[in-house]
Every structure is written in C-alpha cells, then in structure tokens.
Amino acid sequence: MTSFGSGRVTVVHALLDTNRSIEELIAMLNRFRRVLGIAAVTGMLSASTASAGDPAILSLIGGEGPAPYAAFLKENGSVQTLSGLPPTGVTFRVALNARGIGLVGGTSGVDAYAALVCPDGTLTPITGLIAPGEIYTVSLTDSGRGIVGGGHFASNVPYVALVSRTGQATALDLPTEGLIYSVAIDQSREAIIGGIGPSKSAYAALVSRHGRVQPIKGLPATGGIFWVASNGSGTRFIGGQGNDLVYAAFVSREGHAKSVAHLPPGILYNVAMNKPGDAIIGGTSQSLPYAALVSRKGRVTSLGNLPSTKGIIYNVALNDSGTGLIAGFSTAGPFGAFVAPDGAVTLLKDLPAGEGFLDGIALDASGFAIVGGTSQGAPFLALASPNGDLTYLTGLPPAGAINTISGASPHNVDRHCDHGHK
Is the full-model pTM beyond 0.85? Predict the structure, then answer.
C-alpha cells in the first residue's frame, strides 16, 4: 500500500484563523495522556515520523484514500500509516483496545477483509471471512479477542464471526437473509449484534462467548437495527428504525428489548452508552439532523441548535461524566458538537465548509476529542477542545475520507505482540 506523506504529520497552527501554539497543542495532548494514564509529552512536536516503540498510541483511524486506509495517531502528534491493507477498497470500521492492539475491517471491493494490528503496526490478516462480502463493523476486547460483522450486500447474506487472538474467524449461525451493521463485545466476551433480517425486519441478537446466538425479543416488525452498544456491565442499547419511527431500546440480560418512548419519525444511525447506563442517539428526522440524550430511565432530551437544513447525525459518543459528542453533516458541510449532560450544545468551530461530512470521533473522559471526516474529497483530522476549538493535523492521504476513529486507554501496551504465535 502506498505510504502517504511518508507517515508524517504537521500541526497547522494558523489554519482557519486559529492561534494555537505548539505549547497549547502539547498541553491538549497531555490532557489526553493524564486521562489515558500514559506519560506526558515533554518535548516539542515535530513533523518527523515517530521512532518505533516510542510514543504511545492515542487512536486508530480508518477510511479510504486511493486504497483502504488505516493509521495510528501517536501521542506526539505523528501519524503512522499502516501497510499491508488490500490495494483497493475501503476501511469501514476500526477498534483499538487498552493494550494498543487494533482491529480493522472493510472490503477489498470484492471480498471482505479484516486484520488484527499490533502496536508496532504489524498486521495479521484474519482468515476465514465471507467472500465475496464486506465487513461493516468490528469490536475488540482488551484480551485481543474480537467480533466482526457485515455480509454480502449484493446477495443479501448476513455475516458475523468471532475472532481469536491468532486471527481466525469463526462464523456464527445467522438468518439466511439480511445484513449486520453493528457489533459490540464486552470484556467478558459477551456480544450484541444488530442489522436487518429476513423480509426487511429489524434484527438483533445477543451472542455468548461460545458463539451461541440468541435473537432479541420485542423488536419492530419492520425496520432495522443500525447500531448497538454495551456498557460492559450487562446493559445494552440499540438504535435504528421501527415502523418508520426513530427506534431505540434498552436490552435486558435475558434478551428483551424495552423501547424508548416519544421518539419522532425518522431513523437512527448511531447510539452510544456510558458505564452509568445513560445513552446518546443520532440520526435524522424529517430530513433534518436529529440527536437526543436518553437517561437510563428512558427520559429523552432532544438536542437543539442543530442544523436547520437537510442532514444526518452519523456518529455519537458519550463519556462516563455524561458529556457527549455528535458528528455528521448538513447542506452547509461537516457538522459536529459537544453535548453537555443537560443537553446544551457547543458547536465545533471552523469545520470545513461545503460538500463533506464528519464521521470519525473519539471522546475521552475529560471531554477532549479526536474528530475526522472529509471535505471537498480530501480527508481531515483534528483535535477538539471542549470549547469547540479545533487543531488540525495533516499528513493524511491527498484524497478520501476518515470514516472511523477509535481511542484507547493504554496501560499495558503489548508492543511486541505476535498474533500468529499466541
């Protein structure tokens, strides 16, 4: 795979009239590190590629350039582009665990692809995937075991597989028709999956650590489950569309869906849930961007100050303090905002204008974020402060998009992992 910009990243200080200094950017990165439990930056950021084994990993990013794209964003601001991905296609989703091990998934344009990624950038392709097909969604435990989902769009065949630490996929028993759009696995290796089932019905299921699939009861007769979330404490949350209405539901340990009331016509594309059990949802209603906070008791707080033109909230995140982040687009271009626990919205400042979207987001415990997307056909990546200020990074592919970002909390990075021999 082509290495864009030799893997280098440059901090743009005055981009879009921002006056952020190197020292301020280092302070931002150090706020990430205090939360993530990794060593603070003491030197100046530079445009050179980080030396191997030195800077900790802040996030894993994915998307597309002339080929599928994935890279590590390091603590010193450098970007390490990953090699070994297919020569054609797109990366749809990435996941990064607390040990700095990643999982990427997408399509080569014909066949599904997925790979485990060591912190040194070494890729182990996952074997036994659906072909032809696509991997739309991935999730990974801290132990290095994961789950991938997708299917073959052209033939309407769903696919989910558990992934071992050695990179072997074990396919699960699913309905004969449909697609899987979202998966989530917790540290106990219990998972939840969601998508569309036979006859365009909403489909979701719990998956045991041994691969037993238990369909969730009480779902809408028509529609789809487009995103699922697990807070690691046995509570799950799902979102999508049911009978032409925005649909969201909490899922019990026994696999029963308890739908959230008072939601408008429309569709959800993403949901997120924190450890206390509160949630945030995003999508579209009546062609306008739509987002809301949902308390653990099911109370809905619809968000204001969203674009008043056609658009979609593609992605959402929620930290354990109740601060959220929403991302998407309107006719004016990419859109994003922080969300306070009371529903107040702080817009991200100086996002690119014109055709494009904001899709990749990672939010930390202190309310700082990494965001990415595309504008005028070119990808962008930025650090976001809680007040909405953005600091842009460069060194990305000259064309394409950042579709996905996964943050990490590295506390015991396995820099010399070797998936093939574990």
Answer: yes
